[in-house]
């Protein structure tokens, strides 16, 4: 077990969080302490906080992670891959909003009005949707989650903290020049709606930093002639989107950093280079082997 938890180079609070995570991943009885149950009343009724059972004993649930990262970094892709690996749902709040919009759920009319007026969906609505999703998941026997797109503000982070124990917050980062190139290379097939990327990135290393190369994700021949660029994927708009993101995300990152829960991860390239490195950073690099050995 000890070999699975390599924490010497990390700050101690993160080490504690990471060791709880690692211990949980391997359903170990050692090297972990149950998190005390909070007695503070939640602002919103998450099912996990209601009733005497309260928060699930950290030993008996799966990971409860948050993924942060700017638009275009590939956050959804990595969160989704990890959710499959760990057997927890990948819950993207953007999807929850879209699902509710296309349903006849209680919030759909309200949401349609907000979206039609170009307004931002309020914390209350997002939290209500998230709460509903987590309750439905718990009823189906889900244990744990990877959140994507939430929290976006410190207020949301505080609300979440009041009702759930977040184990780890992974902040995916990519050099801005690479990110810009990647966003400008995005194409959508106007016929089938699939996303592709025509950018072939090859940035040289400098000042001791390694270079980054990322292969394009070219479309199949039948989509090739139908590719379109999103109107808001221009250099000016992408740069402005990133500026707004950095400004808003900074306080959320600081919030989790001060709790020792933030894991900063610089993506070294595309998925082939980044995925194994990410697993390593999460102490999951031999997770698949361990799982099949235990089966
Ligand atoms: Zn197509």
TrEMBL record:
Keywords, in A-Z order: Kinase, Nucleotide-binding, Transferase
Catalytic reaction annotation: AMP + ATP = 2 ADP
EC number: 2.7.4.3
Molecular function terms, GO-annotated: AMP kinase activity; nucleotide binding
InterPro entries (alphabetical): Adenyl_kin_sub (IPR006259), Adenylat/UMP-CMP_kin (IPR000850), Adenylat_kinase_CS (IPR033690), P-loop_NTPase (IPR027417)
Assembly and interaction partners: Monomer.
Family of this protein: Belongs to the adenylate kinase family.
Record protein name field: adenylate kinase
Organism of origin: Eucalyptus globulus (Tasmanian blue gum)
Top-level taxonomy: Eukaryota, Viridiplantae, Streptophyta, Embryophyta, Tracheophyta
């Amino acid at each position: 077990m000890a070999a699975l938890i390599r924490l010497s180079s990390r700050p101690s609070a993160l080490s504690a969080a990471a060791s709880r995570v690692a211990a949980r991943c391997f359903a170990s009885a050692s090297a972990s302490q149950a998190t005390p149950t909070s007695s503070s009343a939640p602002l919103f009724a998450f099912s996990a906080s209601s009733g005497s059972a309260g928060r699930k004993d950290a030993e008996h649930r799966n990971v409860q992670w948050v993924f942060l990262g700017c638009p275009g970094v590939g956050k959804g892709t990595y969160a989704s891959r990890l959710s499959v690996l760990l057997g927890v749902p990948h819950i993207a709040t953007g999807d929850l909003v879209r699902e509710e919009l296309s349903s006849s759920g209680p919030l759909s009319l309200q949401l349609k009005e907000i979206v039609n007026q170009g307004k931002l969906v309020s914390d209350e609505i997002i939290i209500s949707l998230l709460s509903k999703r987590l309750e439905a998941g718990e009823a189906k026997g889900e244990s744990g989650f990877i959140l994507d797109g939430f929290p976006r503000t410190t207020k949301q982070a505080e609300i979440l903290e009041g009702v759930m124990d977040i184990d780890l917050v992974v902040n995916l980062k990519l050099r801005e020049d690479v990110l810009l190139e990647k966003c400008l290379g995005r194409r959508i097939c106007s016929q089938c709606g699939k996303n592709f990327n025509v950018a072939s990135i090859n940035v040289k290393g400098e000042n001791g930093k390694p270079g980054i190369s990322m292969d394009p994700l070219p479309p199949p021949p039948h989509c090739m002639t139908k590719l379109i660029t999103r109107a808001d994927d221009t250099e000016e708009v992408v740069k402005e989107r990133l500026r707004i993101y950095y400004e808003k995300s900074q306080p959320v990152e600081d919030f989790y950093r001060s709790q020792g829960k933030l894991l900063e991860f610089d993506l070294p390239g595309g998925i082939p280079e980044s995925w194994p490195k990410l697993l390593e950073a999460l102490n999951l690099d031999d997770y698949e082997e361990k799982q099949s050995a235990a089966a």
